[in-house]
User: Fold this.
Amino acid sequence: MERFDTVVVGAGMAGVTCARMLADAGRRVVVLEARDRIGGRMSTDRGAGFPVDLGASWIHGIRGSQLWELVQALSIPTIEFTVGSFQVGGRPMEHFDRSGARMDAVAAARWISDVEAVDRSLSAVIAGSSPGESYLDVTERALDASGLGPERIHEIREFFRHRVEEQCGAWIGDLDAHGLDEDAIDGDEVIFPRGYDELPRRIAAGLDVRLDHVVDAIRRHGEGWVVSTRDGSFDAADVVVTVPLGVLQAGAITFDPPLPERASVSIAKLGMGVFNKVFVQFAERFWNEGSYVIRALGEAGGRWHSWYDVSAVSGIPTLLTFAAGPLGRHLQTLPDAEIVADSVDALRTLYGDAVGQPLRSWVTRWGDDPYSRGSYSHLPIGASHHDHDALAGPFAGGLRFAGEATWGEEPATVGAAYASGRRSAESVLGHPVDRAAFAAAIVDRERSADG
Assistant:
């Protein structure tokens, strides 16, 4: 049995951040990763000669972001692409009404004004909501009080449903009324033309990362822990578990002794959403140059409602759409070709024969992935952001958890994973980790490796 100071389970953003900080402080650390790659839910496909981010894509708000600070320190290039919290306007968008007809400037402005007015009243309704109420409950009350006509209310209702699905990967009636409280974008958003997984891969360079090591048990042993895999066991004084919430909920790892109530309750109360991506490339652009988003309202956007122009990454006309929540789970039962064809048919409802045949496509299935069992966490009815933080620990004997589901301030983001990894490292070390020195050490190692 190999012995270490700390075993980190999972080589996603939280895991490699924690391990890197501990290793830089002189601790002997091993990272056990079930996949055959580093990055976890930061997954970049480069098979076509350019990066396609199948998992995380954005930094959601760079102002005051510790993650943005790290990206800049590592000189990682980004492209500004601000769509912010499934926003209704604010950037060049092409809006189509419920029949699939393009909305003119006047109609689009009225639509944007309608949503913004209901959203303002929704904030007060949420603040006054009772425990146990869903996001569906509060949005219906805000819509009832809006004074708008039935058709306009219906379009906003669908917008709210799709917003929840995109942000949480969940059905609007399953989300707590406060489920989007933290969903605020501060500053521009950015994407990564070289692929987002560059970040965890660079952090992990030089670490002892054991790929294809599926952890199935974590057992208290004397003053330390034994972490078991099919390829051997590892002994350590401290263990930091960074696997996704869905893996914990599935009971894929056995804990002995069983997890304390504070952790087990949080795991049971939090939700794991499904948010899948469909990328489609075309030979020619049929949408407006410079448009960030194509959005179909009402019936026209029943399944496929929003497409994002991510052509800048590859230089080839490319649209990204999402299948989340119940639709995302359903589509995982269908073949890729059927999913892509259905999304392209929806585009033809809007643009007609201008929509050509796809050149390439990519479809994700995060709900079926045994090492994530979903895309990211959310707050079901009755849960709160305190449940995220309660899961982090530390617990008796030096057991800790990290990952986006353990960071209540901004869960479901890479920023949360990064911050939680740092928190766990600082907890193990018993002192703060200087972020600037952490980034500088990564750069120094790369320079030394380059000779």
About this structure: Residues 281 and 318 are 4 Å apart (CA to CA). The longest strand covers residues 232-241. Residues 45-85+186-194+273-368 form a domain with the Polyamine Oxidase; Chain A, domain 2 fold (CATH 3.90.660.10). The chain has a mean pLDDT of 95.
